[in-house]
Each structure stands twice: as C-alpha cells, then as structure tokens.
C-alpha cells in the first residue's frame, strides 16, 4: 500500500488490463478492465501494489488544461453537469466518479492509445491533439458508461482522517514528528493541531504525550525494563522531564505504580 497522497489536478485512470485496487478517502475501490475513474483534486488516496499483472494508465488533467471558455458538451445532461463541476469549475464536492462500460467499447481504448502515442512522439501540435482526444473521451464517457458518483462526506472523511492519524501515532510514537506526519499524510503542519484539537480537545503535542505515557504505563506493568529504559523506549531522553509529566498524568511516580502492580513473571509461583 503506497503512502497516502493527493494531487492539485483531476486524475483520470483507465484500466487497460487486469484490476486496479485503491483506497479513496478511506474507502476501498477496485477498478476492473475497461473501467475509468475521475479522481477529484485534493482527494487523499493510496494504491495497492500486488505481485500480479495489470496495466493502468493515468492522465493528470491540470487546472490550466481546459479553459473555462472551452465548451465541454456531452450527450447526457447529468454527465455534463458533474464533468463540468469536476474539471472546468474545479469543484471539490466529489471524491471521484467511476465509469463502468455498458458494453465493450474499442473506441475508448483507441482514444487512450492515441493519447499515449501522441505524448510519446511529442511533435508540434501534440498539445492540441491530446486536448482534443481527452475532450472526446469526456464526451463519450457519460453515454458509453454507467457513472457512479462518490461525494465527499466531510464529517465521515474527517473522522477517518483522525483515526488514521491516531493509528499512525500509536504505531510510531517513539520517533514521530510533525515533519514526518506532513510527509506521510500530505497536510500542512497546523492541520494536525486543528484536527486533533477538534476530536480530543488536546494539542498535537499533548495528544502525543498522552499516547507515550500510556505506552509507558503498559511497559511498567508488563515488563522488567528499567524506568530509564522505558522512558527512552517511549521517546524521552530527559528522565527528569519524563518523571514530571508521568506524575502529572497518573498522580504517582513510575516506581510507585510498578510497586502497586508488580510484574508477574511467566512461570513464577
């Protein structure tokens, strides 16, 4: 599973052969041969990479690719509406639109092949030809395919994002940093403070500190590591600081907590 990422453009995916499995906004989606997906800009997603044969083509439709004055007409009014909102108006209402072919459509495949061939040659006129091919693709999609639109459920997405970040912090609490979170999740640093504050009432630093201290409590009760070693294992080199924040949270000292709940060695009487 690749790291979570997003684009500042609409991504058009076409499965030439095999199947393509991805996670979009925390939701599992599998595209099969011949299917097309339009992924909205700024939509977080991840790809599953398997040891099996598949061929997938990705086209990024940049913000400047289509001019708003350029007509984008389709034979289907509903199809025209969401294509225009996703591409021309850069609307962020949609996570993605999935297109399932009503029947085998060699014309769609020929259009994708023509786009790839033109991009490989990159001769004078390539840009205009590719724009024309893509526009023709977008014209055919609503009439030749059944469309399934997945909107952005903002509250559910926020809940999923918080759970994903919480899980990551629980797995990497020893040496996690805001810089690492930015790299993994693709958000600005202040996003994590806002999201965690909204769900827990705590800042990012306090939330991480609570996770580390709870891990330390478990180690004190279930291991024979020294207190100094436990402090280092949960991410604290400064022993004095560790003792102070531990006492603030549990209202007891680490050694007193251990004496109150001593470790029972496996095999002991």
Explain how this protein is built.
- The strands form 2 sheets. The protein has a 5-stranded antiparallel β-sheet. The chain has a 3-stranded antiparallel β-sheet with strand order 3-2-5, with no helix packed on it.
- The chain is built from 10 helices and 8 strands.
- The chain is an alpha+beta fold and 269 residues long.
- Helix 1 crosses helix 3, helix 2 packs antiparallel against helix 3 and helix 4 crosses helix 6.
Q: In terms of topology, how is this protein built?
A:
Blueprint lengths: L9 E8 L1 E6 L2 E6 L3 E4 L5 E3 L7 E7 L15 H12 L5 E8 L4 H16 L4 H19 E7 L2 H19 L5 H8 L3 H12 L3 H19 L4 H7 L5 H12 L3 H7 L9
Antiparallel strand pairs: 1-4, 1-6, 2-3, 2-5, 4-7, 7-8
Shape: elongated
| Number of E-state strands | 8
Largest sheet: 5 strands, antiparallel
Please state the CA-atom Rg, rounded to the nearest Å: 26 Å
How widely separated are the two ends? 46 Å
Contiguous low-pLDDT stretches (5 residues minimum) are 264-269
The side-by-side strand order for the widest beta sheet comes to 6-1-4-7-8
**Percentage of β-strand residues:** 15-25%
What percent of residues adopt helix (DSSP H or I)? Answer: 40-55%
Report the structural category. alpha+beta
Number of helices: 10
Q: What does the average pLDDT come to?
A: 81
Encode the helix/strand succession as letters.
EEEEEEHEHHEHHHHHHH
